[in-house]
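hiii so um. not sure if this is the right channel but i have a protein structure encoded as tokens and i wanna go backwards to a sequence. like what aa goes where. can anyone help
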């Protein structure tokens, strides 16, 4: 039940296929490489029907997968919240997971998870989406449950009171505690609209939620949550005739109310006068500048050209904002756009999170300059082609899963008003010309229409200066809601009157990847997984040298070096790596975990030869140019400064040190200010020579490529790779075993306290690891975990609580964490400790054990459903020195876990007596209470925590 802000939803699955002669020439196409496609393939097929009660049903069948996605979209969102009641639609995102006529409280939460599925919901301005992905055998059960909460949701006073508290905790987490949360959730919408109710935060505000009465909440549900205001989308593995029968059985009997549905049908008046405002906010690591320009409705003919314009500005590292403001001029730590496509009218916001020492005037001028360039001159053919490729490949990747396809179709229906809108808009985007881009820039991105906001840290305010007030304007039109006097009140049926959940159907087993593995003559390990269907390819290079290999005094070296490999230049061509990848419609990523570093490249399969050549340049020939190093170092230092505004990031950092002490796993992978400043080019080159050797590295290829093609491609790109033998890194070991600690880090006046309880745990190759994985699923995995049950659903202390069991070559850690109100932080700590203790003290009952095993198996099965997921799993196994045969035995190993095995693993890795406790927040509001049960509390400042 999470609130996700709207981002650009690229449309239907297509081939990433525009001819890019410059890249092909530089990379040397192979004879195996097919010609680039130039036409748009058909949209995914679907059937459509409308029931007599008005429910619109769309079905997309795909028997190549083992799961099925069920989406119910309600045509109600933040824009429909009544006057003075912002957040009601979002509140129902929570209430709909409580009780219905046949499902008691908490019944829906575990319904998908307990069979290996997932479920969630999101509230946007134009709609609310409820979605589940489950094994195909449980489709009927999910249809029954969705119909039950549509027709028979229980909305009573205790439920309302509890979920209102949870939503307010979420507002505290996402708006008040998150860096730039208020900018994104409150100020930017209010800045962008003068009439449309999009100006209000869809997440809601606490005062409005407190003011809502039970009668108003019930009236809101009766008004909008009905079959003629809903769209049902089913995608994945199902029998069409059986699906129709189930829908007729469960949804057709739901009555269609006679009352009309209120509709917001307005337009935003043209903005003809520029505005500029400044606010000073806490939890703001770096200054930000945003310029918002109004856009037309999503179904407008100019939307395709605006899609391309947005991609030119923001799609990838080589897009204009990042290339010019971040990489070339070092004005910003990050720069991008927020492209809001809405039913009644959207906006394009260009923004920059400025580098630490950059003047705000300079940042604003740079943003204005980039927008002016689009108005003043046509974009180049190369840029235009790159932007289109980015849109197309993103569309294809977003449709890899049944839920992704359901998401695209449902959004098209409710935002653009046509299930085929995405296909039509993408087809039009392919035909957009440079002149079209310039025309829409001169139509919509005019300076007189810009609303500019400077979002500055609170300590940047001059003495006696107050920031501007960014409030919803009185001209914004809001609906009113009159509670009907005769609304039926639904209650939970007595146990003997409840309709039982439908039985599971025949099981459809997931396809587990079958890797093919070989070595080149130089020792490079190559792993191939053929994944036919979508013409996509994921490439990954992995080396078993991560941040734990950083030398003493050089923490952050692996992370900085890996970032430079993909954001800098290659020595062979001195060309921009990101631009070459993104010209293919590809995306590039890198990272350094504790045990390994990796580089990942995602492209259309037609670009396989060029992509391998680029990957070889990245891995074999990084330039480590001086200006690239200084830019990356500055960004890393700015990011580290941002830790000081984030209680949870500080808590995790301190907890890691408490668990591991001065051992390699205890040092911060992102480094410290001192270590980052100490890193030299020689350090980077030496670390690269140690880590990236063919005999130690693995090349992973997943996607639409044959074994013969893969062998030829790997040999062409890496067959002649030779390096001088360099010894492996030998980082210093711990001098002592840390004792558990209780640490308070004081951050005065922050709205929430971050709690982390952490302790040593097992290595990935430990015989008890699978049992520990199931134990972690019970403790903090998913919405139906014990931590969420106790802290969120029972006591409304938090929006979310969870736990993570590390997967590492050496013994790692178990981390349980949550955010809560400072005054209840001490109580939350004790509840977490109690749940840790219970895992080792009481054997898990059969029902919970089976449900948690299915959750673990389901997450694994969904991960192998995408090329990137498979590549990630194989990379993990390489990092952990695990045989790839573990992939094939994973499900069976989890299924064999017994209650006794869980209890044994819990005693080894979950016992709270061996755990350290870290609480970060306003100490005066919780430290005394914490000391009553933990008298040896240590106090620490934020600056000490970041050292």
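sure thing!! here u go:
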């Amino acid at each position: 039940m999470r609130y996700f802000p709207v981002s650009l939803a690229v449309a239907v699955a297509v081939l990433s296929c525009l001819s890019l002669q410059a890249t092909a020439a530089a990379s040397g196409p192979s004879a195996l490489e097919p010609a680039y496609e130039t036409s748009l393939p058909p949209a995914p097929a679907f059937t459509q029907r409308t029931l007599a009660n008005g429910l619109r049903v769309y079905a997309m069948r795909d028997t190549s997968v083992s799961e099925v996605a069920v989406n119910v979209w309600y045509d109600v969102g933040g824009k429909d919240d009544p006057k003075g009641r912002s957040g009601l639609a979002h509140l129902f995102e929570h209430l709909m997971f409580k009780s219905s006529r046949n499902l008691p409280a908490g019944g829906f939460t575990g319904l998908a998870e307990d069979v290996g599925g997932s479920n969630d919901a999101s509230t946007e301005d134009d709609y609310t989406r409820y979605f589940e992905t489950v094994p195909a055998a449980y489709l009927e059960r999910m249809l029954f449950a969705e119909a039950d909460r549509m027709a028979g949701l229980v909305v009573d006073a205790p439920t309302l009171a509890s979920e209102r508290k949870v939503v307010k905790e979420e507002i505290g987490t996402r708006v008040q505690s998150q860096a730039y949360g208020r900018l994104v959730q409150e100020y930017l919408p209010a800045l962008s609209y003068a009439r449309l109710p999009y100006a209000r935060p869809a997440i809601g505000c606490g005062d409005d939620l407190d003011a809502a009465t039970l009668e108003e909440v019930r009236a809101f549900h009766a008004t909008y949550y009905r079959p003629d205001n809903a769209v049902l989308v089913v995608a994945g593995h199902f029998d069409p005739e059986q699906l129709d029968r189930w829908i007729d059985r469960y949804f057709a009997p739901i009555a269609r109310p006679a009352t009309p549905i209120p509709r917001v049908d307005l337009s935003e008046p043209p903005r003809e006068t520029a505005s500029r405002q400044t606010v000073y906010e806490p939890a703001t690591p770096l200054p930000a500048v945003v310029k918002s320009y109004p856009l037309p409705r999503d179904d407008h003919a100019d939307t395709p050209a605006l899609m391309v314009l947005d991609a030119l500005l923001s799609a990838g590292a080589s897009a204009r904002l990042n290339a010019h403001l971040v990489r070339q001029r070092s004005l910003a730590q990050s720069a991008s756009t927020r492209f809001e496509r809405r039913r009644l009218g959207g906006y394009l916001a260009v923004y920059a999170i400025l580098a630490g020492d950059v003047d705000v005037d300079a940042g604003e001028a740079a943003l204005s300059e980039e927008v002016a360039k689009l108005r003043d001159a046509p974009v180049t053919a190369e840029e235009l082609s790159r932007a289109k490729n980015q849109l197309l490949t993103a569309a294809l990747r977003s449709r890899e899963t049944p839920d992704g396809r359901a998401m695209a179709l449902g959004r098209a229906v409710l935002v653009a008003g046509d299930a085929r809108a995405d296909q039509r808009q993408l087809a039009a985007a392919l035909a957009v010309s440079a002149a079209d881009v310039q025309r829409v820039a001169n139509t919509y991105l005019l300076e007189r229409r810009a609303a500019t906001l400077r979002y500055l840290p609170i300590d940047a305010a001059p003495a006696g200066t107050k920031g501007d007030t960014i409030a919803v304007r009185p001209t914004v039109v809001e609906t009113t809601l009159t509670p009907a006097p005769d609304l039926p009140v639904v209650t939970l049926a007595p146990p003997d009157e409840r309709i039982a959940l439908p039985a599971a159907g025949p099981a459809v087993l997931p396809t587990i990847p079958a890797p093919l593995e070989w070595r080149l003559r130089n020792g490079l390990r190559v792993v191939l997984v053929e994944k036919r269907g979508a013409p996509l390819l994921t490439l990954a290079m992995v080396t078993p040298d991560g941040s734990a290999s950083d030398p003493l005094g050089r923490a952050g070296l692996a992370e900085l070096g890996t970032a430079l490999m993909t954001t800098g230049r290659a020595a062979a061509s001195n060309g921009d790596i990101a631009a070459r990848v993104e010209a293919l419609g590809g995306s590039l990523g890198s990272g350094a975990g504790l045990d390994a570093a990796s580089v990942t490249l995602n492209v259309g399969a037609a670009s396989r030869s060029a992509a391998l050549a680029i990957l070889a340049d990245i891995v074999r020939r990084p330039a480590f140019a001086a200006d690239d190093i200084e830019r990356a170092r500055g960004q890393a230092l700015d990011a580290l400064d941002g830790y000081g505004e984030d209680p949870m990031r500080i808590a995790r950092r301190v907890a890691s040190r408490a668990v591991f002490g001065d051992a390699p796993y205890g040092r911060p992978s992102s480094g410290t200010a001192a270590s980052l400043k100490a890193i030299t080019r020689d350090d980077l080159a030496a670390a690269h020579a140690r880590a990236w050797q063919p005999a130690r590295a693995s090349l992973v290829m997943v996607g639409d490529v044959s074994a013969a093609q893969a062998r030829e491609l790997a040999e062409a790109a890496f067959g002649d790779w030779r390096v001088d033998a360099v010894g492996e890194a030998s980082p210093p070991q711990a001098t002592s075993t840390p004792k558990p600690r209780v640490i308070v880090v004081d951050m005065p006046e922050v709205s929430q306290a971050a709690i982390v309880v952490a302790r040593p745990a097992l290595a990935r190759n430990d015989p008890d690891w699978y049992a520990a994985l199931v134990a972690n699923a019970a403790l903090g995995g998913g919405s139906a975990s014990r931590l969420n049950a106790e802290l969120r659903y029972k006591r409304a202390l938090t929006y979310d609580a969870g736990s993570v069991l590390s997967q590492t070559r050496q013994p790692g850690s178990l981390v349980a964490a949550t955010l809560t109100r400072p005054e209840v932080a001490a109580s939350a700590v004790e509840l977490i400790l109690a749940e840790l203790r219970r895992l080792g003290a009481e054997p898990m009952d059969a029902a919970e054990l089976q449900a948690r095993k299915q959750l673990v198996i389901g997450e694994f099965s969904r991960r192998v459903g995408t090329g990137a997921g498979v590549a990630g799993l194989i990379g993990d196994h390489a990092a952990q020195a695990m045989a790839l045969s573990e992939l094939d035995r994973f499900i069976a190993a989890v299924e064999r876990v017994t209650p006794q095995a869980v209890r044994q693993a819990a005693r080894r890795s979950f016992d709270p007596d061996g755990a350290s406790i870290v609480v970060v927040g306003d100490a005066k509001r919780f430290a005394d209470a914490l000391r009553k049960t933990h008298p040896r509390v240590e106090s620490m400042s934020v600056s000490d925590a970041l050292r």
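oh and The chain is about 40% helix and 15% strand.
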